[in-house]
Amino acid sequence: MTAFQHTAGTAMECLSIPITLQKEPGTDSEGREVLRCGFKIGGGIDQDHTRSPYGYTDSGVYVTEVSSGSPADRAGLKMHDKILQCNGYDFTMVTHKKAVDYIKKHPVLNLLVARKGVTST
Amino acid sequence: MSPPAVAWIPIMDTESLKSGFSEISNRSRRIVTTPSGGGGGHTPIGGGFAGGTNINGGINGGIIHSAGGGSVTSLSLPGRHHHRNHHHHRSHNHSRSGRNSRREEPLLETPESGHGSEIMDHQVVLSAAQSPDNNRAPSIAQTPREGHEVIEVQILPQDDGWGDAATAVTGNTSDRSNSPIGNGGTVNSIKWATIPQENQSSDNLGWCQRYVGSVIGAGIVVIAVASPIVMVVGHRIGFPSSRPVTNTRECGPECHAFLLALTVKLVALFGAVWAIFWRGSPATMPRIFFFRAITLLLAFLAAFTFWLFYWVRAEEDGDLSIVGATAFAGGLADALLAIHYLGVLLTEVRQLQPQFQVTVVRSPDGMSKQWIMGSLSIQRAAVWVLQNYYSEFPLYNPHLDRMPPIRKRQPSMNNSTATSFKFYDFDGISSTFTPTGRMSRRGSSHNERFYEEHEYERRVRKRRARLVAATEEAFTHIKRLQDEQGKGPAVPLDAMEAAAAVFPSLARPLQKYLRVTRQQPWHTAESVLHHLAACLRLGLAPRAFLDRYLSYQPVLQGSREGSVSSWALVSDFSVSRTVGKDTNFLLRNGEVSLYVTVAPLPHFNITEQVVDPKSNKFTLRLSSETSV
């Protein structure tokens, strides 16, 4: 079973790419000071992956957009990467909200991502 | 279509001989029969007709089930219109068992009174002596079974003699009958089949009252418009003749120019007057029509002034040349055109701009509509409202409100508000609070009313569905002959005959539908046939034919008033005032009242709002992703 067709909760073994992302301060839409990473995630165990416009095949957390010049871009994160782990926390069985919370919590993110074509064929 | 009118009567006679029934034809022939001993062995009525007509199986309308179970139908029909005989036959499906007992049947077949026929007494023979539970037949004498039994039952004339009027008596095929007869009422409580008489409103609008304004106005207009011609021609022929003929009568270039211009102006004036003013006014109003009076006054003044000056010039000074005369005439024509323009603006154009919103509520049934109106005086607004009322409001059906009471449900209803409210007046006049016709329905509690209306609508829809189905099927039987297909088996029929051939198969559903919606006084069999013939001739679809019966016609087409209808205008303010913010008035005619309220439209403040085209950029925002 590949990393991109993973049934949440089952054990899996796959290759992954480690990415270290340093957040930088920025302002969000309401003007507050936040640490922004510069990417968007979608999916989660509570989301219906069959309705995603990108055609994701399982209910993991995927990166749906990386804005150029952002810390995510500099760290090497690419669009449609699936985040497998974040700071040691498993992201294959999280809800969308939890994923967002975890990402926002720490200033430095150590991610393990799976990329189609790179970590799996 | 050849049910011989004569053929069934003998059958009926034999039938009646055997069954103890008799019937009266329109020749008022009374058949007195002796019932033979025992009723067995008589042929059912239906057998005699099945060959001749296309009676459906379920023509079972006029059946009362007495306690004994033997059921009876009876028929009596004036055979005047032979094509109507089908519908009057009520064959009953029950085989007549050997029991001859307990047959009772009040026959209440009524003739059509709308055709001006005389009211016929239908005489019914009943062998009702034996059933003690004969509590439904009105005014029937119990007579012994043997011997001659002739009982007279007077029936109110009904308009729908073409249909199955016996159902009114005995209840319908459905077990939810509204008929008062079947429910213990009497014959006289059938009120809903009479046509209101023609003279319900006093048409005492005399000739003088109606036309005096128009005649005066017409006179002034004629005089004024003819004046220029008279001026010019008069000068030519030496009128007024007392003037010495001194001036030349040659017509120079100015005179020619004037004359040509005068001709054109007069043509325009004639055309204008004919187009706008030379038609009957739509209404006779209680107060004078202010703007028209002003216009006429101005025209009169203009004509008078011009004539005055003309006369003075011609008579006294004697120096009126042809140029002068034509100048006067031309000037008068100009003045009249200007006044005509003013009149048109005042009376026709000013009210075109919408300024008020008018709400009209019709009193007995609460139907309302809203329109937009211009600025008018109250009386003219009343005329305008009436014109729109006659063309847009659906016809008022007084019978819908006077529905006979629904057949009583089980007495164990928990409805305690059904009793009428009694009070005693100590001055010696005691009375019960008799509810108005609307509330005379038992069960004025809201719950019952809700269910009643629900049931009623269900019934209407059911019958409507049957009617539409029957009509569509009936229409498929008619095929238009494309060209000379003389080789076909049937002889080609013209439209009226085709209609009469198709009519019986949809007569019953149509009549039942009309009964349910209480429309049957408005549609006679003749009118239905004519309409059907017209639809067939023009190739209309079945639903187009049905539209007249399924939807309410506008008041104008359905009302039976003459060409003059009188309405009483009740208003708090003087009716010559212009309508304003709080204007209410009432128009009343008989039992229909129209309550009119007027509300002014606000002044609209339109501002321009510029939308920057650069703001027309869009991004896709999916709810399934979050930005971190």
UniProtKB/TrEMBL annotation, chain A:
Pfam family, one: PDZ
Cross-referenced SUPFAM superfamilies: PDZ domain-like
PDZ domain sequence ranges: 18-105
Cross-referenced InterPro entries: PDZ, PDZ_sf, Synaptic_Scaffolding_LAP-MAGUK, Tax1-binding_p3
PANTHER family found in the cross-reference section: DISCS LARGE, PDZ DOMAIN-CONTAINING PROTEIN
Name this polypeptide is given: PDZ domain-containing protein
Organism: Orchesella dallaii
From TrEMBL, chain B:
Membrane topology: Multi-pass membrane protein
Source species of the chain: Orchesella dallaii
Residue spans crossing the bilayer: 211-237, 257-277, 289-310, 322-346
Residue ranges, annotated region (Disordered): 70-117
Keywords: Cell membrane, Membrane, Transmembrane, Transmembrane helix
Highest taxon in the source lineage: Eukaryota
Location(s) in or outside the cell: Cell membrane
Predominant location category: membrane
Protein name: Vang-like protein
Biased composition (Basic residues): 79-100
Family: Belongs to the Vang family.
Keyword set includes ATP-binding: no
